[in-house]
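HUMAN: Forgive my ignorance: could you write out one protein's sequence and backbone structure tokens?

ASSISTANT:
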Amino acid sequence: MTIEYDEKGKFYTDVVKKLPISAVIQTSTHLVRGMIHVRQGERLKNELERDEKFLAVTQAAVHDVDGQILFTSPFMAILRSQIVWLMPVDEEIQEDGAHDNS
């Protein structure tokens, strides 16, 4: 890691802080649930528009067409061109679609 200082003493590093966002990702063949990491202060859309071949997903669970988990992995790289749709998951929304008002 490098640290650079400007003339006012402000420092800059190579470290990029990212916030984890729970998401559901539909690829051309599977449904993936996991965490996508978005740069602090940016939108999920910005992360999707990056000029990188793969999208990193942590705590990934790959589901078949019946919703059964095929496998899980602490890290998965998904080829961006295979993503059909993606949506963030609101932690307060339950599986049946009802909001948790507790």
